[in-house]
Amino acid sequence: MVRVKQTFSDSKASCSSTTLQNYDGLKAPDKSGDTGSKLPSMDPSVCEFIAENELIQILPNFNERTIHLISGDFGPFEAGSPVTVPLWFALQLKYKHKCKIVPPEWLRIDELKKLLVSETERITFAPVPNCFFEIAHILVTNAYSDLEHVEQLKMLVRDLQDKREAKMRTSIIKFMEQFQKDKDDIFSDKAVIHANAQLNNLSRLEISYFRAALTEPSKWLDRLFATMHGGIKSQAVTNDDFC
Q1: Which residues fall within 8 angstroms of residue 145, CB to CB, at 6 or more apart?
Q2: Averaged over 67-75, what is the pLDDT?
Q3: Where do the DNA replication complex GINS protein PSF2 N-terminal domain residues begin and end (predicted)?
């Protein structure tokens, strides 16, 4: 058996592709209105790094016995026979021209159209595959030759992202409107302004983008209410029950 050294695992860091801001199919939000707040700890590059631990199928062009990695045993490898490996390992083999990456079922034209229809028909966020945007970006960037109709794939992913961004903006507006409804209570001596937001089916990447958009306004409103009346506190709660 072949035992891969720890350095093989460490090489994962070097194979991480460019961040999602550079992928025109997955646009980063406009930061022109940035208030100078700290960036969230989970930025797109970290989300992408985590996504590279997801399993994916490859078609190797070599023969090898089972390879033992920290994350598990993978193989044996037989030329032309599909085998499942971590995405970062698949990228390493791809760079060395040792395999062809098999795209996941959801990264196909028909499946993306179904996801787009589901997102359009639902008022709330539709569920998407785990690490959907990160894996789509990684494969479009690093396994272009293994995908069919790449430009159409990018267009569908972009359309899906646009619809979800629009829903997020609407959710943020509704979240802020909860404060507006309670404006008559602002001058009460014991006023406590409550607001709640429940956002299900958001991906890790979307959470990293929009967390500040939900938390920062509530902080500013809290300061505003405190200025208007010393005894007033706003209790803005975001429900992170993401599924």
Answers
A1: none
A2: 92
A3: 43-102
Query: How do 2-3 and 67-69 pair as beta strands?
Result: parallel
Angstrom distances, CA of residue 112 to CA of 57, 84, 136, 160: 19, 22, 11, 8
Q: What are the tokens at 103?
A: 């795209």
Query: Measured between alpha carbons, how far is residue 71 from residues 4, 90, 101, 233 in Å?
Result: 12, 14, 19, 47
The pLDDT of residue 39: 41
Angle between helices 204-228 and 132-142 (to 10 degrees): 130
How far is Cα 61 from Cα 63, in angstroms, rounded to an integer? 7
For residues 175 and 122, the model is more confident at 122
In terms of Cα–Cα distance, which of 1, 7, 241 is closest to 124? Answer: 241
CATH of the domain spanning 44-102: 3.40.5.50
Residue 61's pLDDT is what?
96
The contacts of residue 206 (CB under 8 Å, 6+ apart) are 133, 164, 168
3-state helix, strand, coil in the chain (%, to 5): 50, 15, 35
Three-state secondary structure string covering 62-77: CCECCEEECCEEECCE
Give this prediction's pTM. Answer: 0.72
Q: What is the mean pLDDT of residues 104-126?
A: 95
Domain 105-183+200-227 = CATH 1.20.58.1020: yes
